[in-house]
Design goal:
Order of helices and strands: HHHHHHHH
Shape: elongated
Distance between the termini: 36 Å
Number of strands: 0
Helix content: over 70%
Strand content: under 5%
Oligomer: single chain
């Protein structure tokens, strides 16, 4: 599972927790604030990737096998490719709106943090859907050892992607990926307020 989906569902779960410190309106800590700004900074890349994924899905839907789809596998591939195209369009729409909304944000709540992940979640699903859809299409056209090689290759790559997602998630939790930025932020605060309370942070 991509790391964006893990973070998204973990954030949503926090909104429904009963403890007072998990309220959706509570400001984020410094670590998640850095992650939030990283995410917003990459929204322009999401636009490009979503456009490429959506274009690939729409192009694949022009294959003659989908006009009309006669087999169950072709119908599954058509559904996945259509879902991929729609998800890519929604990811572009949300990325544009949220980039306009969140740019320059200084104080971010848990709700803002959860919503900010939605374009990446949709983009991840769009990529997975187009891959599975193309594999289904290829399986129906090339049954035998060629289809087995294709399915095995894509399966291995997806498993590797899941492992990378787990590795990223395990390194994000101890805040190892943002320690330098947190240190730089504290250094800037000390320069702005020499001898003040920020020196004790």
């Amino acid at each position: 599972m991509p790391p964006s989906i893990l973070v998204f569902f973990r954030t949503i779960a926090a909104f429904h927790a009963d403890t007072p410190h998990n309220k959706a309106s509570e400001p984020l800590d410094q670590h998640r604030l850095i992650v939030f700004h990283r995410l917003v900074r990459f929204y322009d890349n999401f636009l490009l990737l979503s456009a490429l994924t959506g274009g690939l899905s729409v192009g694949a839907l022009q294959f003659a096998e989908f006009h009309p789809s006669n087999t169950a596998v072709d119908k599954a591939a058509e559904g996945l490719l259509t879902s991929s195209a729609c998800s890519a369009v929604l990811a572009v729409m949300l990325a544009v709106m949220l980039n306009f909304r969140f740019e320059g944000y200084a104080t971010v709540t848990r709700l803002d943090y959860g919503i900010a992940w939605t374009p990446l979640v949709l983009l991840d699903w769009s990529i997975v859907a187009v891959l599975i859809g193309l594999v289904c299409w290829y399986w129906e056209r090339s049954k035998g050892w060629r289809a087995a090689v294709m399915v095995g290759t894509i399966g291995a790559v997806l498993c590797f992607a899941v492992w990378v997602a787990w590795w990223m998630w395990s390194h994000m939790r101890p805040k190892a990926g943002t320690k330098i930025q947190e240190w730089q932020l504290k250094s800037r605060k000390r320069k702005r307020h020499p001898g003040g309370a920020d020196d004790c942070v």
